[in-house]
Amino acid sequence: MRVAPLPADQWDDDVRRALSVMLPDERLNPEGAGNLLTTLARHPRLTRAFLRFNVHLLFRSTLPARLRELAILRVAHLLGSEYEWEHHVAMGREVGLSDAAIEGAARGEGADELDQAILDAVDQLQEKANISDHTWAQLSAHLDERQRMDLVFTIGCYGALAMAINTFGVEPDQER
What we know:
Blueprint: H1 13-19, H2 30-40, H3 44-60, H4 65-78, H5 82-94, H6 99-107, H7 113-128, H8 133-140, H9 145-168
Helix pairs in contact: 1-3, 4-5, 4-6, 4-7, 4-9, 7-8, 7-9
């Protein structure tokens, strides 16, 4: 672990304000926040800015939740982020991803044309920071412009988050 979660005795109003963007009052504590947010809390201004963006992607995005979670799982798998993978397997199940779809995300194999286009978009953005014309056309057949924009930013955001998790050494919550 390179960046440890912020100890409870160092939590102050700035930390609580930063995390309040995403967490309800009852979870504004080191145990309720989990290892990732408690680690990010070491930099409250950055955390608040990041969480505002992340809240849009999780709760206000035009992209259907099932597709969002499929994309995030592919990102987590490609970048080897165990923490992100574990959290989003649970979230994916909550929004209707089957075990087969979750396993398919790890393999890069979608159940249908749209799922495959989502997984291909993740692979292409991770490899070349661009989606091919073919994949864009497939996405366009199913998603409107704003949904496609939300998809690109979801993939980018969760790629950056996976990089932070991996680099900081954020441990799964049960190990804390």
